[in-house]
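User: Let's play a game. I give you a shape written as tokens, and you guess the letters that built it. Ready? Here's round one.
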């Protein structure tokens, strides 16, 4: 009977030890979880800061360009087709080249558009379940 009591006592000690370990682990999991969430938030905010810094640098460069009179003149000529006094503006267009480019960019269809539309409607009609 003594040996049997010893076996129970050992298993009782083991059980208590495992219970204490479980409580300690649970006590550490909650702060660890919140620390991981905070680290993710910090990383996201750092990325946002870098993006904002890049945007600020871009805007500062644009601001510097807008203070330069030569840049303003060049942009006015390019974008708005402004011409300085005493100069004549000539805009050259080649309509044939434009038409060729438009045709080359047009996608090639396997069949007429209305046949594709009909097939699409038929496929949709086949997939609808009747209630």
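Assistant: Ready! My guess for every position:
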């Amino acid at each position: 009977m003594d040996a049997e009591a010893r076996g129970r006592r050992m298993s009782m000690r083991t059980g208590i030890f495992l219970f204490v370990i479980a409580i300690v682990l649970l006590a550490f999991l909650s702060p660890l979880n919140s620390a991981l969430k905070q680290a993710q938030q910090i990383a996201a905010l750092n990325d946002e800061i870098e993006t904002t810094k890049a945007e600020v640098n871009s805007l500062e460069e644009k601001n510097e360009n807008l203070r330069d009179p030569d840049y303003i003149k060049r942009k006015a000529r390019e974008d708005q087709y402004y011409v300085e006094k005493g100069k004549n503006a000539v805009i050259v267009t080649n309509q044939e080249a434009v038409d060729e480019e438009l045709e080359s960019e047009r996608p090639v269809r396997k069949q007429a558009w209305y046949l594709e539309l009909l097939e699409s409607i038929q496929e949709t009609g086949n997939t609808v379940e009747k209630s």
